[in-house]
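FORM 7B: Structural annotation worksheet

SECTION A. Query
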Amino acid sequence: MLQNPKRYTITAALPYTNGPIHIGHLAGVYVPSDIYSRYLRLQGKDVAFVCGSDEHGVAISMKAKKEGITPQEVIDKYDGIIRKSFIDFGISFDNYSRTSSKIHHDTASEFFRKLYNQGDFIEEVTEQLYDAKADQFLADRFVVGTCPKCGNEEAYGDQCEKCGSTLNATDLINPKSTITGETPIMKSTKHWFLPLDRYEDFLKEWILVGHKNDWKPNVYGQVKSWIDGGLEPRAVTRDLDWGIDVPVEGAEGKKLYVWFDAPIGYISSTKEWALREGKDWEPYWKDKDTKLVHFIGKDNIVFHCIIFPAMLKAEGSYILPDNVPANEFLNLEGNKLSTSKNWAVWLHEYLEDFPNQQDVLRYALTSNAPETKDNDFTWKDFQARNNNELVAIFGNFINRVVVLTNKYYTGIVPQPNELSEVDEATLTELKAYPAVISSSIERYRFREALGELMNVARLGNKYLADEEPWKVIKDNPERVQTQMYVALQIAAALSVLCEPFLPFTSTKLSRILKIEDKISWKTIAEDSDLIPAGHQIGEAELLFSKIEDEEIQKQIDKLEATKVANKAENKNVEPQKEAIQYEDFAKMDLRVGTILEAEKMPKANKLLVLKIDTGIDVRTIVSGIAESFSPEEIIGKRVTVLVNLAPRMLRGVESQGMILMTNNAEGKLVFVNPDADGVANGESIN
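SECTION B. Predicted structure
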C-alpha cells in the first residue's frame, strides 16, 4: 500500500449505456467510490474521481437491434438518463466522460498502436463462430449455449451468469445465434491477442505476494484462481460494426474489443478533466506518488486485476492500482437483479416515488452493502432502516437539539458553565470518532464506517436521554445551558461526519445549524468548541420522514407485477400438434354454458362435481379444478363446454362432457369463456 500519496486517482466502473442505473450499480460501485472520494476531499487531498459511459461493444448493438434504432441513438438516450441519475444521487465525479468521444478514441488508438509497435501483440488467424444467415461473425454476447462447466443452457459466449465462469464463445455446447436462432458455423478471421501468459510472473509477484494482506479476500481469491489456472492470450480485437477502429493496416472492418478500450476510458476521462481544469493529467496516471484505486463489481475483477494491469505494464509508463475493492452482487427481494427482465429498482423511478429521499437509499444500500458476500435488498428492510435508524436515531437527536435550543434560547447557542465528568467524557468520545470512521473508510469498510457514524448520533441521543434537560430546566437552568451546548457540538460534528455518506443531509443540517464550511474533519478531532456560544442557529426541520406501509406495499406490488410479466413473456408455449382436417374439428360440439351448482367430490382433492346449463340440458360434469377454485366462487360462471364428449365414470359419478381451461403465466387455471354480453347458453362455438 502506498503511504501518504500526493494525489489520488479514483475510478468507478464505466456503466454500459444499454439501460438506466439501478440499485445494484449504486450499491456495488458508485456509492462506495463516492464515499471514498468525498472523504478524501474533506481531508484536503488532491483527488481525481473519474468515470464515463461505456458506449461500445455488443451490449449496445443488441439493445439497438431490439429497439429498432441505431447504436448512436441508444448511447445518446441512456447516457443522458445515467448522467442525471448520478447527479440526482450526489455521485461527485470530477469528470464523467463518454467512450464515444474523440479524446477517448484517440487515447485508445494511441495505446493500441504503442503496444502494437512494441511487438506486444500476437497476430493470429483463428476459427470464430459465424452466422451465415446474418452474414456476420458473432461477438460473444450474440451467442448462447450450454456452459461446459455447469450445464446452464443459457450461458453467453463470454460468461456463464449461473456459475460465474469466464468463457470463449467457441467453448459453448450447442451454440445458437441470438440474431437469427441459427446454429453458427466456424469461419477463419484474423485478430490480435494480448499474451497474458507473458505476465504471469509479474502478476504473481505484484498481486499474490505484494497485495496478499491488503486486498479484499474475494478479490485476491478470484485473481489467485485465475493465475493458478494458467493465463492464456486474449483477443483485443473483434469483428464488429460498432466501436473503435483497429488503427493498423490489414484490420479493416475490425474494432477494438470493448474490454480493451473501456478501462482506457479512465485515462481519457482524466485527460478531459485536466484539459478543462488547466491541469497536467500525467501525474494522476504516471507518478509513483499517486494512489490509483478502482471501484468495481465482482464481475469485473479479472479485467481490472489481471488484464488492465498487464496492459499498463506492457505500455510501460503507467502506475498500477494500489487497490481494487470490488464488491459482490446485490440481489433484490431474493432474486438476482436483471436489466433485461426489469427486475430492478431504477434510480430515476425511485425518485418519482420517494422524492428528495436520495440519502435514505444511499444509507440503506451502504448499511447492507455486499462488501464480502452477496446481499439482498428488500423493501421492508429499506423501510426499517429509514424508520428505526435514520428517523428514530439520527433525525430524532437533531430535531430535539434544534427544537430545545430554539425553545430555551431563541436559537442562540448558550454559554456553557462548568463541565461535568459526563460532559467531558462525551466530548472526549466525540473527538475519537473522526479517526475511527477514517480507519474504516481507508480500509474500504464503508458499512462499518456508516455504523460508526450512527454511533455518533446514538451518543447524542444517550446524552440527552440521560441528562434530561427538559426536566432539569425547571430547577437548574444554568446546567441546561451546558447540556445544550454539549448536544449542539455533537450535532455540529454530525453535519460534517455524515457528508461522505449522506451528502444531502449534510447540506441540510449545515443550513439548519448555519455552519456551512466552518467545521472540518480535523477540527472535530481537535476542538470541542465546534459551534460557539452566541452562534444563531435556524428553525427545526425534519431531516428524515417516516415511510408508511402503503408506500412499501406499492413497491412490492410493482415487483410482483414484473414477475407475472416475466413469466408470461418467458412461458414455454406447447408446440403445435399434428395437423387435422376440418372434418375432425367439426365433430366437436362446443357450447356456451353456465355453472349452476358446484361441490367437492368426496375423498378427492382435485375434483369438483358441477351442474352446468348447456342450453340444451342441465348435465353433470366432473372437472379437476378443485385446487384452483372453491365451489362458491364459480357458481354463475360462464364456461365453454365440449358437450358431445363420450360420458365417463369418475369415482362413481358419470361426467357428461368437459369444460375448456387454460393456464396463465403463473400456472393458475383460467376459464376459456365467452365474455360478450347477450350470448345465450347453448350457442354453438365454431
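SECTION C. Observations
The longest strand covers residues 590-600. The CA atoms of residues 393 and 457 lie 6 Å apart.

SECTION D. Sign-off
Analyst initials: ____
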